[in-house]
């Protein structure tokens, strides 16, 4: 049984039809369809030159939310409406009824997402008004929508989540409750509401300071095995609380499948974030609309989350300290690159030292927090594609998607 499912028949439009619908359709998805039709779906070596290369051509408008996309030819668009039947706050529930069931290649049209704490966060609400709401959800803040079940997905497979569109609502906030962030004792509890312009390109922070929007989902994960709920504060081999600000429209996120159907959950809609997330929050918001296309790669070699942007491959490390998170990230990335390319591990170590960029995803300090589980500290590594020959780029893409 699935819920809130509708089919958007525009998914069956041919690429030539889309050419006539106006410039607003020329986002990552539309361009990608033309590329894939020309090269053939088997040419997944074009992961660097296909979807990601197409995404490189997105306009600033698409980067800030994108125009309304359609699925690649052959897939359908399946509507998913957030409700208390399809949202869990602060955790993935292993026994939740599927929100939708789709086929590989289909696109899920999330007809809105919720703000934190079950959509109870409202514009202008004072800090004292918000605290009882925050304490109401001890498992965490994220309003996770799902699960999306993918037909044919089995443990050992890989789900590729192509982030096609994220358009924010017209407001968000940044805050630091007591005892969180990199400076938990330096300031009083902090809360600032931000208005977002009608084009959804900028948010006004303080007079004279406009923040460019770069929407992303902080949380994206497949359901781990077992019958225990999984806190949305965590991250692991299944993905989860990646909280990586560069994973906007035009990127792919790769998640290992650990249960039949994959059961993908997502939440934590952000308007923009600095890398490091130092006061513990981004521009926390919700989306008017989000679209993700789900592809399935059978029996993949990957055993942890990875991501691809138009210019980079990205790996992740999570631990209780930034030191340990960096080491975990580096070891994962060395193993992946060596297996994909045949380059000796010690040479991969050197490549990361001279060309990799290791960045703080989130500092995640929480002393005295109301949440039952604390987020790990996160590091992500950005490895530029441009350093590799075309042949090695193809081998890396093939290996990752094999």
Description of the structure:
The chain is an alpha+beta fold and 402 residues long. The chain has one domain: Sandwich (Jelly Rolls), CATH 2.60.120.580. The protein has nine helices and 23 strands. It has a ten-stranded mixed beta sheet. Strands 3, 5, 7, 13, 15, 16 and 18 form a seven-stranded mixed beta sheet that branches. A hairpin with a 2-residue loop joins β15 and β16. α7 crosses α8. The radius of gyration is 20 Å and the shape is globular. GO terms for molecular function: hydrolase activity, acting on carbon-nitrogen (but not peptide) bonds, in linear amides. Pfam families: FmdA_AmdA.
What is the molecular shape? globular
What's the CATH superfamily, by name? Acetamidase/Formamidase-like domains
Approximate helicity band: 10-25%
What is the CATH class? Mainly Beta
- How would you write the strand order of the largest sheet? 1-2-6-19-8-17-20-21-23-22
Low-pLDDT windows of residues: 6-64, 66-70
Query: How many structural domains are formed by the residues?
Result: 1
Pfam family, one: FmdA_AmdA
Protein name: Acetamidase
GO molecular function: hydrolase activity, acting on carbon-nitrogen (but not peptide) bonds, in linear amides
Region (Disordered): 1-25
């Amino acid at each position: 049984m699935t819920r809130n499912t509708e089919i958007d028949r525009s998914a069956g439009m041919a690429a030539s039809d889309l050419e006539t619908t106006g410039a607003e359709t020329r986002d990552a998805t539309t361009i990608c369809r033309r590329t894939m039709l020309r090269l053939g779906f088997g040419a997944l070596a074009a992961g660097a030159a296909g979807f990601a290369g197409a995404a490189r051509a997105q306009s600033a408008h698409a980067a800030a939310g994108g125009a309304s996309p359609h699925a690649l030819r052959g897939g359908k668009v399946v509507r998913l409406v957030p409700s208390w039947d399809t949202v869990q706050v602060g955790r993935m529930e292993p026994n939740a009824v599927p929100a939708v069931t789709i086929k590989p290649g289909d696109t899920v049209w999330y007809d809105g997402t919720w703000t934190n704490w079950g959509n109870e966060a409202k514009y202008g609400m004072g800090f004292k008004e918000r605290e009882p709401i925050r304490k109401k959800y001890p498992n965490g803040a994220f309003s996770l929508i799902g699960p999306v079940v993918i037909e044919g997905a089995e443990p050992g497979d890989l789900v590729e989540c192509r982030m096609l569109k994220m358009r924010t609502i017209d407001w968000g906030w940044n805050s630091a409750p007591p005892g969180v962030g990199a400076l938990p004792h330096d300031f009083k509890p902090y809360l600032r509401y931000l208005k977002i312009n009608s084009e959804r390109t900028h948010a006004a922070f303080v007079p004279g300071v406009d923040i460019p929007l770069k929407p992303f989902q902080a949380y994206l994960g497949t359901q781990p095995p077992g019958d225990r709920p999984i806190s949305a504060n965590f991250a692991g081999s299944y993905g989860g609380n990646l909280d990586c600000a560069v994973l906007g429209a035009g990127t792919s996120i790769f998640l290992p499948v650990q249960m039949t159907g994959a059961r993908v959950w997502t939440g934590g809609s952000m308007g923009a974030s600095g890398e490091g997330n130092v006061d513990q929050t981004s521009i926390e918001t919700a989306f008017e609309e989000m679209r993700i296309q789900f592809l399935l790669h059978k029996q993949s070699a990957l055993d942890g989350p990875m991501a691809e942007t138009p210019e980079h491959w990205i790996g992740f490390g999570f631990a209780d300290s930034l030191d340990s998170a960096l080491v975990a990230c580096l070891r994962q990335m060395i193993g992946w690159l060596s297996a994909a390319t045949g380059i000796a591990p010690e040479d991969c170590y050197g490549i990361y030292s001279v060309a990799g960029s290791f960045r703080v995803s989130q500092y995640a300090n929480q002393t005295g927090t109301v949440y039952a589980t604390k987020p790990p500290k996160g590091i992500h590594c950005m490895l530029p594609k441009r350093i590799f020959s075309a042949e090695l780029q193809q081998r890396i893409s093939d290996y990752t998607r094999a």
